[in-house]
Design goal:
Helix content is about 35%, strand content about 15%. The model has no long low-confidence stretch (mean pLDDT about 95).
């Protein structure tokens, strides 16, 4: 079965994938639109990562039977176009949870300890002569209240680590979860009580722009916002205002409203922001777990068996 991976795979990953049995695999960089367009007519399955897969792409793939998201969120896939053609759409819940949980923790620590600022200052030779006022803005994570917006696989992994560090944990979900570590709160109450707010929900029409100007204003002065979920959850212009004014002390962001993000984005000029280019999921462990299931779904498609984690 002809499988098209739309991702700029490194040499090690490409070699491992090429060795998978039973696949006629073609790897096309998500930065090469021409090569992608040329490969679409023969593709029977697309392994989709981040570059949006729109209706025009789907229409250009007459043999397409499966869109396999390498990850969880399917907001970058035109699901209506896939449904209209009877094309299965599957995702991979849980395969990147540990990686994202670990980067979330790293962003919390980096924001509280101003690691990006110290890194730049040290490289410039000024690290040992920082202004005295910087000392007033360095915080430990232990002893602080961390609010987890959502309580899926990632917060479930993150919560016991935060508890071990001495954090008080709040969470919000559709309903209280008896097994959860932490105290249930409504979103408004969580925002008002938390020193660190971390986002862990999908981007949907209902959640898009959830953390806007009003939500940011409800957060504690000096709080930190961390987002490793989806950029569209946050009003970026309002976030810039909150960071510039000092209402928020810092932000740690792995995702942005538009990706790739504009290098002239006002967020990047702020010294109290730590950023990464949507790589929370990106580890060799995630690859191993993800592509094992993706290959199994291709096998199931070829043999007529039920697919794993079908969402459309």
């Amino acid at each position: 079965m002809r499988v098209l991976l739309h991702y700029r795979a490194g040499p090690g990953l490409a070699a491992r994938l090429s060795a998978l049995p039973g696949l006629d695999l073609r790897i096309v960089s998500d930065a090469d639109d021409a090569a992608f367009a040329a490969a679409l007519p023969e593709a029977e399955a697309i392994w989709h990562v981040l570059r949006p897969l729109g209706a025009a792409d789907i229409a250009a793939a007459p043999r397409l039977r499966l869109i396999q998201k390498i990850g969880v969120g399917v907001n970058t896939i035109d699901l209506d176009a896939a449904r209209a053609r009877g094309i299965a759409v599957c995702n991979l819940p849980g395969t990147n949870s540990r990686a994202v949980a670990e980067l979330t923790l790293a962003l919390m620590l980096a924001a509280l300890r101003k690691l990006a600022w110290f890194d730049a200052e040290t490289r410039a030779g000024r690290g040992w002569s920082q202004p005295p006022e910087i000392q007033d803005g360095l915080f430990e994570l232990g002893g602080r209240t961390v609010g987890l917006v959502g309580h899926g696989a990632i917060p479930t992994l993150l919560a016991p680590v935060l508890a071990a560090l001495g954090c008080r944990i709040l969470y919000t979900a559709r309903a209280p979860k008896p097994e959860a570590i932490g105290e249930f709160r409504t979103l408004d109450a969580l925002l008002a009580e938390s020193d660190v707010v971390s986002l862990h929900i999908p981007e949907t029409p209902e959640t898009r722009g959830l953390i806007g100007r009003d939500a940011l204003a409800r957060m504690k002065r000096g709080a930190v916002l961390v987002n490793t979920a989806r950029g569209g959850l946050v009003d970026q212009a309002a976030l810039v205002e909150a960071l510039r004014s000092g209402h928020l002390a810092a932000a740690g962001l792995d995702v942005f409203a538009a990706e790739p993000a504009d290098p002239d984005d006002a967020l990047f000029a702020l010294p109290n922001v730590v950023v990464a280019p949507h790589v929370g999921w990106l580890t060799t462990g995630t690859f191993e777990r993800s592509f094992a299931i993706a290959a199994e779904n291709v096998r199931r498609l070829a043999s007529g068996e039920a697919l794993l984690h079908r969402v459309a």
